[in-house]
Amino acid sequence: MCDSDNHARNNPSTAYLEATEQLIAQRVAAVQTANAGAQASLAEAYAGQDVLWKAASESADAHRELAAHIVQDLHAHPETAFEEHRSMGMLAGVVEQRGFPVRCGVYGVETAFEAEWRSPNFDASSHPTVAIMAEYDALPGIGHGCGHNVIAAAGVGGFLSAVEALRKNGGVEGRLLLQGTPAEEGHSGKEYMIRGGSLDSVDAAMMIHGFGYDIGSHAWVGRRSVNVSFRGVAAHASSQPFMGRNALDAASLAYQGIGLMRQQMPPSDRVHAIMGGGARPSVIPREASMLIYVRSLGNQTLMDLSQRVNEIVEGAALMAGVQVDVEWDEHPMTLPVRNNEALVERWTRTQTLRGRTALPAGTVPETLAASTDFGNVSHLVPGIHPMVKVSPSDVALHTEDFARWAATDAAVDAAVDSAAGLAQVAIDYLADMKMRAAANAEFAEQGAVSVADLLAKSAAD
């Protein structure tokens, strides 16, 4: 086989990404024009917004060296889910050095932490609380290929900048929390924290994520996982194959069944599976296993797709004449992100001031979507999870290439710009009663949904 054939097979086509880039470019100019008009007068939102925003932005810029330290330190010392002891300690130390007591191991998660600031006359019954969240876990073997070091720097910087702006200007009553939320990669640390009470007194929550684009509101799909164990009967594959029941056959049938189902799946939904079984070709495998991820843009479609996968797995076991055990959600499922558009609108303004164009929902195709446990947060309180450009648009998350970009000056720029934006939106939620009412009304219309609620409804149906 000639080398050119091998080269073509090992280099996937970039045509889809290139077409997407052209489509986005056509929309950016219109978005920039609209944003410029919206920024004409910051004082329209409420008296003093421009003063507080300016103070928050200046504070974020003043913390650039700190942001760079966090970005580089976490990048150099990646820790995976639930093992982030050093990362948590470093971040907690940074916050404590600036005068904020930090509680570690909070809400039942050993590597989670929390710090807070309260206005002098804070009253929990009448004044709002905003949580700014920071992730800091890394990927096995890749390190910060999802840029959680940038998320942590932005979260810490946003909290410090908001507090400094509010202290300098006064008159705003409320509370700010910095919540360190570990174990997002492959897990759902925020859901464990939620079950421990992390959102019990929170009115709104926000964080950012690095990406190849600046996006104010982007699709994040919900995700469930299922472990499947097939159990058959071993036999000699040559002398007595009729005495066996092949567990690997069942896994293969399930894998093919999932592949055939994809024709009927919505374009944004995803199912991916891996499988294994057997030790020697001469022995019919008695055991085989699969790990399957199911993803969808909607809560109900996620549950519907899960049911289809469940039926395929059980049908495969029946066809192969083997037994099957199906274990859903070894770690709690993550829900699709529900971006609060009232908060997103403010985020878009903040990033315009930083020279960024935060693209609106739908500009980048929803098929370019991953999953995050912030979805669980966003279904219980108004929240935003905007994307901030760290890398070129053709660099994928969860790759070594993105990990390299997560340690660059562009990553530090993203952290600083995001810190300013998080601080400004958090301040607005505390200080701008009109905007807060709009955000709360939008959320109330959609209704709060917990993982427990969704599972109970699915079981009843």
UniProtKB/TrEMBL annotation:
InterPro entries: Amidohydrolase, Bact_exopeptidase_dim_dom, Peptidase_M20, Peptidase_M20/M20A_hydrolases, Peptidase_M20_dimer, Xaa-Arg_dipeptidase. Residues 222-315 form the Peptidase M20 dimerisation domain. GO terms for molecular function: hydrolase activity. CDD domains: M20_Acy1L2. It comes from the Bacteria. It holds the Pfam family Peptidase_M20. NCBIfam families: amidohydrolases. Belongs to the peptidase M20A family. This is Peptidase M20 domain-containing protein 2. It comes from Corynebacterium striatum. The lineage of its organism: Bacteria, Bacillati, Actinomycetota, Actinomycetes, Mycobacteriales.
